Please model this.
Amino acid sequence: MVAVQPDTPSEPTGTPPSLPKAIAPGGGISRQPCNTTTIQIGFNYRLPYPFIVENSIAAAQIFAFIPAAIAYGLDIPEDKVVVRMLVPYDTTKELGYITTLAICFIAIDLVDRLALDLQTPHSKLFQNPLSSVSSLVDLIDISFPILAEEHLVSSPSRDQAEAGSQLPPGTVLEVQNPDPRFLNVIVFSTVVAILIYTATMVAVSRRYWAQKSRWRVPLSFETIKQEQRQSGQLTAKPEAHQETSWINK
Model:
C-alpha cells in the first residue's frame, strides 16, 4: 500500500516559498555515477509535493520503490538506478497542484528504452509482482518527458552546502529510513489487519449460524402428533384402514 493524498480542492497558483527546494534520502543527495544521465519521473495528483513534504513515509516509498520498479522493468540490478532527490514542479495553473518529480540517474543507453516502457501500459515496468511497487508505478504521470530540465538537474545539494554555498534553512529536507524492509512493515501490517478482520467475521458468522440452527431444532414425532390433535388435523386412521381393506377385497 502506497501512502497517497485524499482528494482535495486545487491549491493556489505558485510554489509556496516555505516548501523545501528538494527532498533527499537519509544518506544525502547522491553523486552522479559514471556513464549515467539524469531523468525525471513525475507523479499524479495523488502524490503532490506538499503532501510528500508532510509525509516522510510517502517520500521514503518513492526512494525505495522507484529503483525497484525501473530495475525490474529494464532487467537490471536495482543498484543501477539511483533516486537523487525529489523536487517540486509548479503545475498549479495547468493541473491544480504542485507536481512531485523524482530526479534519478540511469545508464545513458537505457533512457530510450525506459521512455518507451513508460508509454506502453503492458510493458514489464507496469507488471511488477510486488503490489507496493506496482501501486507506486500506477501513480506515475507519463505525460512528463523523461529527460530532466537543466534547472532541476542543478538543484541544491549537500555537496554544494559543504563547499560553502549559503543555502537557506530548509532548502533540502532529508527523509530518514528509506529502507524497503522498513516500508514493507506498513504493507505487512495492513495485510495482517485484513486477515484478522476476515477471521473475526468468519468466526462471528459461524457462531450466528450455529445459534440459528439451534433455534430450528426439529420437533419430535410425538410433539408434532400432539399439535396435530390439538388443531384437529389428525384424522381417524381406523376408518382409513377399513376403506383400504374393502378395496383390497
Q: What stands out?
A: The chain has a mean pLDDT of 74.
